[in-house]
Amino acid sequence: MTRIGHVLDFRVCAKRPVGVRLLLLWSLVTDVPAGPPSCHSNRKLPMLYRFKSQATADLVMLGADAQGALRLIGKELTPEGVISPDQLPRAIDILQRAWREDHALRLKEERSAPEPLPVTDDADPDVRLSQRLVPLVSMLEQANKADVAVVWSAS
Q1: Does the predicted model carry a pTM greater than 0.85?
Q2: Is 17 helix (H, G, I), strand (E, B) or coil?
Q3: Per-residue pLDDT at 69 exceeds 60
Q4: What is the domain range of residue 122?
Q5: DSSP code string of 65-129
Q6: Which of 73, 76, 1, 11 is nearest to 31 (CA)?
Q7: What 8-state DSSP symbol labels residue 21?
Q8: Bridge partners, residue 51, by sequence
Q9: Under a CB-based contact definition with an 8 Å cutoff, are residues 61 and 51 in contact?
């Protein structure tokens, strides 16, 4: 989670009690404390990560989301790195599993909600983990088909 995302994260948690668990889980995966920006304002995290592959166009992700995805697939959080062609199938499997689990949790939340959540005209919609992973998974799948590596760099 980036500092910009904290408003969204806490609004989601207020709407859905299960969101608290997702916030804490995501904060563990991304190594960003669950709390307002003042709790960790001296922490310097990369704002963006750029993923590149010869098989696709570049993909830019927010730092915390990219870090969470990299940790899920077992990569060290270095400023630059590579996912080799032989590592791609495992990475795709892990991210797709995370997507399925998040999607199942969303469906469970919707079914257990006593009444529909109010629709707001917020500038930031409720963007879930599963939605944030789709572009990266797509990139990894295309790179896997072309048997080329994916490299990343933080900025």
Answers
A1: no
A2: coil
A3: yes
A4: 46-154
A5: HHHHHHHHTT----SEEEE-TTTHHHHHHHHHHHHHHHHHHHHHHHHH-SSPPPP---SS----H
A6: 1
A7: H
A8: 59, 152
A9: yes
